[in-house]
Amino acid sequence: MLDIKRIRNNPDEVKKAIELKKENSNIDEFLKIDEKRREILKELESLKNTRNKESENIAKLKKEGKDAEELIKEMKEISDKIKEMESEVKQYDEKLEELLWTIPNIPHESVPVGDSDADNVEIRRWGEVREFDFEVKPHWDIGVELGLLDFEAASRVTGSRFTFYKGLGCRLERALINFMMDLHTEKHGYTEVFPPFMVHRRSMFGTGQLPKFEEDAFKVAGTDYFLIPTAEVPVTNMYRETIIDGEKLPIYNCAYSACFRQEAGSAGRDTRGLIRQHQFNKVELVKITEPEKSYEELEKMVSDAEDVLKALGIPYRVVSICTGDLGFTAAKKYDLEVWMPSYGRYVEISSCSNCEDFQARRANIKYRPKDGGKAQYVHTLNGSGVAVGRTFAAILENYQQKDGSVVVPEALRTYMRCDVIRK
RNA sequence: GGAGAGAUGGCUGAGUGGUCGAAAGCGCUCGCCUCGAAAGCGAGUGGGCGGAUUCCCGCCUCGUGAGUUCGAAUCUCACUCUCUCCGCCA
Prior knowledge:
By secondary structure, the chain is α+β, with helices and mostly antiparallel strands. The chain is 40% helix and 21% strand. The protein is built from 13 helices and 18 strands. The chain has helices at 4-9, 11-20, 27-63, 69-101, 139-145, 151-157, 168-186, 201-206, 232-237, 294-312, 358-363, 388-398, 413-416, and strands at residues 121-126, 149-150, 164-165, 191-193, 198-200, 218-219, 225-227, 242-245, 251-260, 279-289, 316-320, 332-340, 345-354, 365-368, 376-377, 379-387, 406-407, 420-421. The two termini are 52 Å apart.
C-alpha cells in the first residue's frame, strides 16, 4: 500500500511506476475521488465543530439551570445533516480503499527497466556447469526409479501436482530443511520461527496476497482461514499492528513451512516433477529493518541464500528482476536460479525482495526510533533460503551418475548418513 | 461444545452520560544536579486524517461495527479476540 500523500503529490511518478510494472491502476480516478472526498470532509468537519461547541454550551446552560430546548432542536438538525454527509464520505472512502489496495509498489531506482522476464539482468554466476558423458535424466525419473518419489500414488490420493516422498527421499527432504535452518541460525544470525500454516484474511492482506491474488490461495472451507502460500505471510504478520522497539532492529527470522499454492494460470506448465506443486516445503528468511538499512540488508539476504547453494555445490546465477516482472509488493527483487541439467537452463529457486514500507503500511508495522522520536513504518524483506523441493530436484539432476545413483553433496552427509543414494 | 470474566496510550492500570484524548505509575526524551553515573527534582511524551505549513487550528480515535442521545470510553445490540473453569479430543 502506498502513502496516499505520495500519490497525491507525485501522481506522475506513481503512474509511471504502474506502467513499468505492467499493472493497471486508475490513478486519475483515484485523484478525482480523493479531491471530492476532501471537499465534503471539510464541510463535514466544520459542522461537527459546531456541534461539539454547541453541545458544550448546552451542558453549561443546563448546569446553570437555564433552558436549552432551542439549541437542542438546532443541534438535532445539524446531527441529521452530519449523518447524511458521513455516509457520503464513507462511500468515497470505500472506493478509494478499493483502488488503493490494488496499486502496486513502486520499483526502486536501481531496478532495470523491462517488459518481461526476458529483460531480467544477470548479476553474477557461481559454479561450474557439469559436463555429462551420458544422457541426463529429469529428476522425476531419477526420483521415481530410486524409490524416493511417488507421483502416481499422490494423484490417486489427492490429485495432480502432489507427491509422496518415500524412504531416503524423505530423509533427503528433512536433511535439506535441517541443513538450511542450521546454516541460517548458526552462521547468518537468524532466529528460528515455526509459524501457523493457516492465517486469517487480514494477514493475507497485510503481505499483499489479497485482494488481488485470491485465486492463487487455498481457502479452508467453512472458515476465514487460508493455507499459507509462503511463510513470509505468518512471519511478517507476526508484527502486524505493533510498534517495535528500535533497539530490536534489524530482526532476522527464518522459518521452515509447507507452502500451498493453487498455481492458477499455470495449467499445463511444469506438470511433471517437483518444480510446480500445490504443496511444497520452503525455508523462508524474513527481515524487519529500519528504512535506511533495507537495501544493504537485501544484499546480505541474497548472499545468505547463495550460501545454501554454494555449500551444496549447485551452480546458480543471481538475476535482478526487471520492472515488468517485479510482482505486486516488491520494490526490488533478486532471483536465484539453479542449473537444471534436464532443462538445460537455470530455474528459479529463490526470490529475495525488499518491500520497503509497502507491507508495513498494510499490516501496520512500525518501530520507535532509538532516539525516541515518532513511530514510523519499518521496511520488510523476505527471501527463500531456499525452496526445498526444487533443491531436491536440483541435487538429483546435478549429482546423478551414469548408473542411476545420486551422489549426496558433502554438506548433507552428516544429515543423510550416507554418501550415495542408490537403488 | 457449556459457563463465566475481560479488551483503555510503548507497558501496567483508573475512569459508568457533559472541558476525558483520558488520572496515576512505569518506560522514553530533554533540562537541572554530578568529575561521571545512579538516585532525586523539573518539563515533555499515543495514533490517523484534513487545513495553514514560521508558531498553529480542526475532525476522528478508549477491540470492531451499528444504535440511543444535543452530547458516548461510559448506555443498547451484533461481531472479533483474550483469559478462567467444565466437557471432548490429538
